[in-house]
Amino acid sequence: MSDHTAMMEAPTDGKLVLLVDDEFDILSTYSMLFEYSGFRVATAANGRLALAAAALEQPAIVVSDFMMPAMDGADLCRAWRADDKLQAIPFILCSAGIVRDHATIAYDSFFRKPVPIDMLIKEVRRLLLKGRTQE
Question: Is the Cβ–Cβ distance between 63 and 20 less than 8 Å?
């Protein structure tokens, strides 16, 4: 079995994915597709709500938009990495816009929107299998 096939077939064991985006259509579509792929899903409309959700139940991974009100994806990622309980959890950042301060954001993966959902799920599985890949 190839590594690619193993990643696509890797069991999710109902792991919790935290999806963070201020666009309802993206949250609802991604939620449905991640659930269909065997994950449990929690959602938040901004970084502050994401931190509150993570305090209730730690996710296995977070997938966050960059541009959001209240707390954007960069500030969420910085707060995530500063929290001893959350810092080892993989963080995927997505943006339709230009992200100028890449060097100061300790994300594990970055995707330009729109992200094909199969590519995003594949990356989530890869990060969950291999652990955090970037400090």
Answer: yes
CATH code for position 36: 3.40.50.2300
- Write out the residue range of the structural domain in which residue 33 sits: 3-130
Which positions ≥6 away from 55 have C-beta within 8 Å? none
Number of structural domains, the chain? 1
Strand 91-95 with 109-112, pairing: parallel
Q: Is residue 15 situated within a structural domain?
A: yes
Tens of pLDDT, residue by residue, the chain (135 residues): 444 444 445 556 789 999 999 999 999 999 999 999 999 999 999 999 999 999 999 999 999 999 999 999 999 999 999 999 999 999 999 998 877 666 778 999 999 999 999 999 999 999 999 764 443
